[in-house]
């Protein structure tokens, strides 16, 4: 199993069963350094969807009571587990990454810190669970992701924006 992407690099690789094992390994590591309950950590993103081609990066969701109340001790614990806070600005979310080595050029894992059981938490888990339960939706999503590479678009933000409408469409099913 090879993990990691450079800044702005976007590639998709075939699904690997090892992704789930890697997630479990890193979850245990995080729990060793940070005061969280196991149910506050979830595997999300395409590596958490059975059979889905994905970027070779493990996405981890961590739910906390309140984002504003995360203290230095918590971030120090994440850093001991190899995760560094990124300067990414997202509403109701803090992003941390783990890197391949000390050069900090290749990211291998992301942590998405959100408030537990709030809207963002529920949306991210719903999307994962919906795709795992609906093979048609999974195939459509994979097709959309693959079609990005037939455009002139480049970079991770363009890739995320390209998929956004489909993702929002799935999430809109959450309340119906």
Draw up the topology in text.
Blueprint: E1 5-6, H1 18-33, E2 41-44, E3 58-64, H2 72-80, E4 83-85, E5 94-99, E6 106-115, H3 119-133, H4 135-147, H5 156-171
Parallel strand pairs: 3-6
Antiparallel strand pairs: 1-6, 2-3, 4-5, 5-6
Helix pairs in contact: 3-4, 4-5
Describe the structure.
By secondary structure, this protein is an alpha+beta fold. The protein has one domain (5-175): Beta Polymerase, domain 2 (2-Layer Sandwich), CATH 3.30.460.10. The chain is built from five helices and six strands, in the order E-H-E-E-H-E-E-E-H-H-H. Strands 1, 2, 3, 4, 5 and 6 form a six-stranded mixed beta sheet that branches. Strand 5 (94-99) and strand 6 (106-115) form a beta hairpin. Helix 4 packs antiparallel against helix 5. The N and C termini lie far apart (38 Å).
- Architecture per CATH nomenclature, i.e. the level-2 architecture: 2-Layer Sandwich
- Specify the helix fraction band: 25-40%
Radius of gyration: 16 Å
What's the pLDDT, averaged over the residues? Answer: 96
CATH superfamily: Beta Polymerase, domain 2
Number of domains: 1
Structural class: alpha+beta
Succession of helices and strands = EHEEHEEEHHH
Could you name the CATH class?
Alpha Beta
Fill in the CATH topology: Beta Polymerase, domain 2
Q: Based on Cα principal axes, name the global outline.
A: globular
The span between the termini is 38 Å
């Amino acid at each position: 199993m090879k993990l990691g992407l450079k800044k702005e690099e976007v590639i998709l690789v075939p699904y690997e069963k090892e992704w789930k094992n890697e997630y479990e390994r890193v979850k245990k590591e995080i729990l060793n350094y940070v005061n969280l309950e196991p149910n506050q950590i979830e595997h999300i993103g395409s590596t958490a969807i059975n059979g889905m081609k994905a970027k070779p990066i493990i996405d981890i969701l961590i739910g906390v009571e309140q984002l504003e109340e995360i203290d230095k001790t918590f971030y120090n614990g994440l850093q001991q587990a190899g995760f560094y806070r990124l300067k990414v600005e997202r509403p109701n979310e803090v992003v941390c990454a783990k890197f391949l080595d000390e050069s900090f050029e290749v990211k291998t894992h992301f942590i998405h810190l959100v408030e537990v059981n709030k809207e963002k938490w529920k949306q991210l888990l719903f999307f994962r669970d919906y795709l795992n339960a609906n093979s048609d939706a999974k195939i459509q999503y994979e097709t959309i992701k693959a079609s990005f590479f037939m455009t002139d678009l480049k970079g991770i933000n363009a890739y995320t924006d390209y998929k956004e409408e489909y993702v929002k469409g799935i999430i809109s099913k959450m309340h119906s």
